[in-house]
Structures are given as C-alpha cells and as structure tokens.
Amino acid sequence: MQRFFNNPDDIVDETVAGFVRAHRDMVTLSPDNPRVVVSNWAGTQGRVGVVTGGGSGHEPAFIGYTGRNMVDAVAVGELFSSPTAKAFHDAIRAADGGAGVAVLYGNYAGDNMNVKMARKMAARDDIAVDTVVANDDVCSAPASEREKRRGVAGEIFMWKVGAAKAAAGADLAGVIAAAQKAIDNCRSVGVGLAPCTLPAVGHPNFQIEPGKMEVGIGHHGEPGERVEDLRRADEVADDMVRIVLDDHALPAGTEVAVLVSGLGATPINELYVLYDRIERQIEAAGLKVWRPYVGNYFTSLDMVGVTLTVMALDDELKELLAVDTACPGF
Amino acid sequence: MQTLPNAGAAPLIHQIAATIVDNKAWLSEIDGKIGDGDHGINMAKGFGRAAERIPPDATLTEAMQTLSDVLMGEIGGSMGPLYGMMFADMADALGKAEAITAESFGAMLRAGCDGVREMGAAKPGDKTLLDALVPAVDAYATTLAEGQDFTAALAAMRQAAETGRDGTRDMVARIGRSARLGERSRGVLDAGASSCALILAGFADGITQRLETA
Questions:
Q1: Tens digit of pLDDT for each residue in A264-289?
Q2: What ranges make up the beta strands (E) of chain B?
Q3: CA distances from residue A137 to A121, A163, A310, B1 in whole angstroms, order as listed
Q4: Both A24 and A173 in a single domain?
Q5: 3-state secondary structure A209-267
Q6: What's the pLDDT score for residue A330?
Q7: Is A23 an annotated catalytic residue?
Q8: Burial class for B19, CB neighbours closer than 10 Å (0-12, 13-18, 19+)
C-alpha cells in the first residue's frame, strides 16, 4: 500500500503538529514537552485531572479524546510504542488542578512500566495519582486471567466516563471508581482481514493470507484466537457479538452502549454493514442498544479490520456518557 | 591489579552504541518475527542519540547516566524504561569511583540487573533480555569468585550472555507483545536478549582492549 510520509522517523512529530494545528480550538501542545497534547480546558483548579497515553498509530486515539469534559492531557509515544515516563509525567503535571490526577490507560507492558515511573515522579511533585488499567479485549486472555487482557476500544468509554465524573466535581477516588466501572462493564473483540505496516519498517508486521480472517486480533496485530476462511459480513458480525456476549453474561433487558470501530483501512460503509447486523443480534439476545457509535474511533495504522465493544450500562454510566463534550475524536 | 580509570571511559558507551546502530536492521528483523519489528529502530535511535551527546572525555558513570536519560526520556516503549533503569542503576553503582575494577564492574552489573528486574515483571525463562543478562551477571561473579581475573570474568560474562541469547530460541514468550503468540514464538531469538548480548559483548571487548593496552 502506498503511504503519505516525509521521513518515517518524523511521522509522529508531524502527526502531532498537524493535529494541534487542526484542532487548536480544543487542544494545544505542551510547552514543556512536544510529546504531550493538552486540552484547552486542562488544569481547572479543584477538578480531578484525567490523563491517558499510548503509542501512536491509533488515531484518533489517544490524542483525539483530549478536550472539554474529556481527557485533559495525553502522552504520545512512537508508533505502537509506549510514551516515555517523562511524557506521562508531563501530562500528569499539565492535567493537575490540585485535586489529583487519574491516569486511565491500556494494559501493555511498556505503558505499565512508564506509568509506574511517572507516578513516582509525580509523587515528588506532591500530585496524587491513581490509575485504571483497561483490559476489555476478550480474546487476549481467558476470563480467569482478566488482569492479563489488553485494553482496546473500550478505553474510549473509560475516558468518557472518567472525565465526565471529574467534570461533575467528583474526587479522585470517585473518578477512579467510575472509570473502573466503565471498563469492567466493557468487552471488546477485533477481527483482522489484512495486516498493518510501520512506515519505518516498510513491510507488514504480520501476515493474513488472502481469503482468511483473524478473529480476536489485537490492536497491533497481536494474534487472535483463530485464523479461518473469511465469511460473509453477517456471519462475522454474529461471531463478534457471540464472543463479546458469551464473556459478559448480561441479564436480559440490560441497556448497552455499542462501539464499532474500523482499524484504519476498512471503508466506513462496511462498518455500517456490520453494525446493521450487530445491533439486531444484540437486541435478539435480549439487550437494548441505548447508544451506538460507528466510525474510526480507535485504529491500527492501515490494518483492515474492525473492533466491537459493548458496555453494559446503569443509570450512572448513562448519565456520564450523556455529558456534553468537545473533543476531536467523538 | 587490572583497573581502568573511570574518567575518559565514556567511549565504551560510544562503542556499544555503534554496535547497536550497526545491528539495527538485524534487531528489527528478529523483532519483526514475533513483535513489531521496531526494536532495532528504537534502540539505534536511543543509543545513537546518546552517543552524540556524550563527550569522549566523560566518565563511564556520566556516559551511562546520559544514555539512561535519553532512553527513559525520549525513547519510551518497553525497552526505554528497562534499559534506562539498567544504565541508571549501573551509573549509580559505579558512582564517583575513580577506577573501574573487577569488583566495581561486578557491582555495577548486579545493580543493573536488579534494576531491570524491578522495573519489569519478567523472570528468567520468559524469553526476555533477562535470559541473556542474568546468566551473564552470574557467570561474571562466579568467575571472579573462583579467583580468576577481570578479563577472564568479562569473557565468561560475554559467553554466558550469548549462550543465554541463543537459549531464547527454544523458549515460549511469556511476557510482552510476543507472549500472545504462545507456541508460535518458539524458534525465534528474543530481540531484547539479542540487544542485551550485544551490549554486554561491547563492555567485555571494550574493557578487555583497554586493560591490555594499559
């Protein structure tokens, strides 16, 4: 596939530069760190700050969820590579309004280490920091080892809920509890049809043979639970719904938020083809779709594929999801 | 006694950095089989950038501190904090010592190894850089304890690191991105163990060369 870039080593800096230029009504670059994107509403005194961060290549995640009543500051890493501890630390400082900072991020080895170091650095600044680690990707580990599961598109709901709670004036423990509930209520699954390529590497970082699909694929091409013949969209949708709901065991009548995201190189119309079936299958399972989201919310460079996230809702989560926000990604 | 002045020993790090940069494509190729394929790119970026910032007359302590700062502050990923912590703890252990001796180098290695183990959650056998580092540090200490000299200990360290690296080929990854491959991760070297063996070989060769010409 042909790609747009200058020097592949500059691709992240140029992405961030274009992003803050395009969305200057909502975000700015940290004056202290070119790898930290800050909301124009960040640092409100007395309000809990919300921070996230992760490797680049998932746009609009992570930077796109920076904004009003959303994430306050985002640490930006190289493509598919965790941000530095310093970037997380500078993001924490940018988000701090004196009431502590909630770092809401995904379960990846590098992010875990860098956030751990950033917490130590923030402790020296007397900033109270607590974390929620997203683990919504069903196929990345069995239910008995849920703490090993990776975080994927469910992180968007975690950010939205956590940030809305902070905007409502909750303390750090309250924000953490809400964000934790959001991610605990999320289950996600990915299906890949074609791999993605890091421009500096120049060739795909894994293979999916023509005519095959990989069910349960991760956000960086981590292997799924099975590779099998590509099937019709309705059958793929049915499979995804089954995987997510089997892991969730929700009582009939539960209201859910549903997020279908392309992985970067899937045409948007195909997401709607899938969504049409997904919603009907979810409703057939006795659940009620309260709010759908369909689009490229959390991508993986030029991977062809899709993720489905289902979040079970209660009154609090519905109220927080409904809070008005302004950010480039939503 | 075999010793090396700490002052002016920074070129040891320049040599290691040059080796990492020379092996950029190889490290990325190994990583690409079970990871992202960017290990060589990120390592070369970090070590290369640090080498440019380290004056040749600096101490090894200062050189390792600068390398750590670049890895932790500018590279990120998993290798940034792991190697960043390793070199920070090595620099702390060597501290203001005027001479690099067999004993102080041994303490430095041990501190670096402890730093990596504290930062990550891996254990030997998980197919990580620890599978090169831990046996190398042990071999170094054992050789010294047997009464052999600095160069013999360095040679043992180098050998153990390379044997450890080669041993990762038959391991199944249990941590990091390649862990999800399970059995499919077998048959490929671990990229972290491979870069770690290069770093330790760089120390062994560089110090031996200097001890012999001293």
A1: 999 999 999 999 999 999 999 999 99
A2: 3-5, 99-101
A3: 30, 22, 11, 58
A4: yes
A5: CCCEEEECCCCCCCCCCEEEECCCHHHHHHHHHHHHHHHHCCCCCCEEEEEEEECECCC
A6: 84
A7: no
A8: middle
Mean pLDDT of chain A: 96
The alpha-carbon radius of gyration of chain A (Å, integer) is: 19
DSSP assignment letter at A84: P
Confidence class for position B15, pLDDT limits 50, 70, 90: very high
Question: Tell me: the pLDDT tens digits for A164-210?
Answer: 999 999 999 999 999 999 999 999 999 999 999 989 888 887 889 99
Put simply, the answer to whether A220 touches B36 (Cβ < 8 Å) is yes
Q: Cβ atoms within 10 A of the Cβ of A244, count? A: 25
Q: What are the residues facing A228 on neighbouring strands?
A: A213
Q: Which residue from B76, B86, B126, B100 is spatially nearest to B2, judged by alpha carbons?
A: B100
Q: Which CATH class is domain B3-213?
A: mainly alpha
Q: Are the Cβ atoms of A81 and B38 closer than 8 angstroms?
A: yes
User: Is A163 domain-assigned?
Assistant: yes
Is residue A323 domain-resident?
Answer: no
Contacting A residues, span 34-73, partner chain B, CB-CB under 8 Å: 55
Indicate if A229 and A147 belong to the same structural domain.
Answer: no
- Pairing, β A288-295 against β A226-229: unpaired
Instruction: Find, among A88, A46, A44, A45, the residue nearest to A70 by Cα.
Output: A44
What lies within 8 Å, CB to CB, of A32 at 6+ separation is A90, A93, A94
Domain extent, residue A52, equals 11-184
Residues in chain B: 214
Q: How far apart are CA A237 and CA A233, in angstroms?
A: 6
Cis? peptide before A62, omega within 30° of 0: yes
Name which of B136, B98, B92, B107 is nearest B3 in CA terms: B98
Sheet order of strands, A101-106 included: A27-29, A36-39, A73-79, A49-56, A101-106, A129-134
Give the residue from A54, A28, A22 showing the smallest Cα distance to A43: A28
Whether A329 is in a domain gets the answer: no
pLDDT tens string A133-158: 999 999 999 999 999 899 999 999 99
Instruction: Enumerate the residues of chain A whose CB falls inside 8 A of the CB of residue B41.
Output: 200-201
Both tokens of B58, joined, read 């600096």
Relative orientation angle of helices B191-213 and B39-53, to the nearest 10 degrees: 30
ipTM of the complex, rounded to two decimals: 0.80
Residues A130 and A190 in one domain: no
Which of B37, B72, B82 has the CB atom closest to A205's CB atom? B37
